Amino acid sequence: MSQPTPANVEPIVNDDLAAMDVVPTTLGDPTGPSKGRVTVVHLYPREMSIYGDLGNTRCLEARLRWHGYEPNVISHNPGDDFPDDAHLVVGGGGQDSGQVRVEADLEKIGPELKELAEDGVPMLMICGMYQLFGKAFITVDGKTLPGLGILDVTTRGNEKRMIGPVVLSTEFGDVVGYENHSGSTVLGEGQEAFGSVRSGFGNNGEDGHEGARTNNVVGSYLHGPILPANPHLADWLIARAVEKALAQPFEPGEIDDRFADQARERQVRRLTKS
To answer: Which residues are listed for substrate binding in this entry (predicted)?
Structure first.
């Protein structure tokens, strides 16, 4: 629905997909006892993680450790049972073929995802998964494909492609990233946007909105990946996840984010001339 396969790029074949699962690492390996275990579920890393979106999961994994928590990273692939203890759920962008491969499984686990969203479990859905968490995607030829309806957004495919760096104003502060999508998304009446566009196209290049947010579920077109470039957003997701996992307030550790902050501030200045 969002990224067709370029003509000069060989498509990924099924034999290669197993190598694309989210393999737990020792990123941010801490010293000292753990404050508790937090489960991060990455939806469809084989099919829906282009443009570096796997970096969001890596970022969450590392920052959980730096904050003193034990990350439990799980890949959810089509046909898998959905974990019972999901505290944070992430998903990324994909080609049309990838979205087709996950459609049936997403419909199967949809009720569980809706229940988790209503219960306040934090979720970050990027690009193609953002579209699938909406109400519907309308193809260029007019076919309507239903979504989960967790976010009240509708996306329509078109010939216009929206590509480039983005700066947003959000309740989390300035957020930067990179967009590359042809779907034009419109918010339903009363649906909160994730942010306001200061530079870039956003949802559709017209209304100034980018992404959508309902409770602790955030949908956005921003790749980059978004979380390493915006650690304040990553920590907001982690804080909500800790509250769900441990039923206690988030206790942040000391993390030196000055390089990420400086890079973000420079991009804001460069793109907005402010």
So the answer is: 161
Residues at the annotated binding site for substrate? 161
* DSSP letter assigned to residue 147: -
Higher per-residue confidence, 97 vs 35? 35
Q: Among this protein's residues, is 181 annotated catalytic?
A: no
* Type of residue at 231: P
- 223 labelled catalytic: yes
Quote the tokens at residue 46.
């084989």
For 45-96, what is each residue's pLDDT tens digit? 988 887 889 999 999 999 999 999 999 999 999 999 999 999 999 999 887 6
Partnered with residue 47 across adjacent β-strands are none
Output b/e per residue, 209-230; b: 16+ Cβ within 10 A.
bbbbbbebbbbbbbbbbbbbbb
Identify the active-site residue in 127, 181, 209, 232. Answer: 127
Three-state SS letters, 8-58: CCCCCCHHHHHHHCCCCCCCCCCCCCCCCEEEEEEECCCCCCECCCHHHHH
CA 21 to chain centre: 16
* pTM value > 0.85: yes
